[in-house]
Specification:
169 residues; 3-stranded antiparallel beta sheet; 8 strands
Length: 169
């Protein structure tokens, strides 16, 4: 029975993707059984209630989507969003990801170890603007993490709400 549970989990979860205790429970894996799988070498515990398969290398986009499910409004922003959209030609060997979200949050150590990142949560826009305005996955990965549109990504230097366009000449 336990062998079927881990086999079902391995065939349904994409490789390189972190998953949590709730996902394990959905496959009938209790906390005690998850602990046994970690001890037996089937799973690696990344952090409190977060796992991956032994031998896997975490993939960036699924890891970002996993974090976005836990941190409201999390998205790729600023310089990283511009780089991903082709607005910079000279790329650093290991670029620090710029991530933004709604609440103050701390990125987990397991994520930072694989993907150096900087997280910010200042409010940039008036509350009348929808939270998801200017955020969408990249066209080549429609199921990927949300990324700031270039105009929104350039707004990073602004540390106050952006007024509506009522400028007079």
């Amino acid at each position: 029975m336990a062998g079927n549970l881990i086999r079902n989990l391995q065939t349904s979860q994409p490789r390189g993707t972190p998953f949590d205790s709730a996902t394990l429970r959905g496959f009938g894996v209790s906390s005690a059984l998850a602990h046994d799988y970690v001890r037996a070498g089937w799973l690696v515990r990344l952090g409190w209630g977060v796992f991956m398969f032994t031998g896997d290398k975490l993939a960036r986009d699924p890891s970002l989507k996993f974090l976005a499910s836990r941190i409201p409004g999390l998205h790729v922003a600023a310089k990283t969003a511009l780089i991903w959209q082709g607005f910079q030609q000279n790329l650093a060997h290991k670029e620090t990801l710029c991530l933004w979200g709604n609440p103050q949050a701390v990125l987990p150590e397991w994520f930072q170890a694989c993907f150096p990142a900087r997280y910010s949560a200042p409010r940039l826009f008036e509350s009348a603007l929808s939270a998801g305005f200017g955020l969408a996955p990249m066209p080549e990965s429609p199921d990927g993490p949300r990324v700031s549109a270039p105009d929104r990504a350039r707004m990073v230097g602004v540390r106050r709400p952006v007024p509506s366009c009522t400028r007079t000449w």
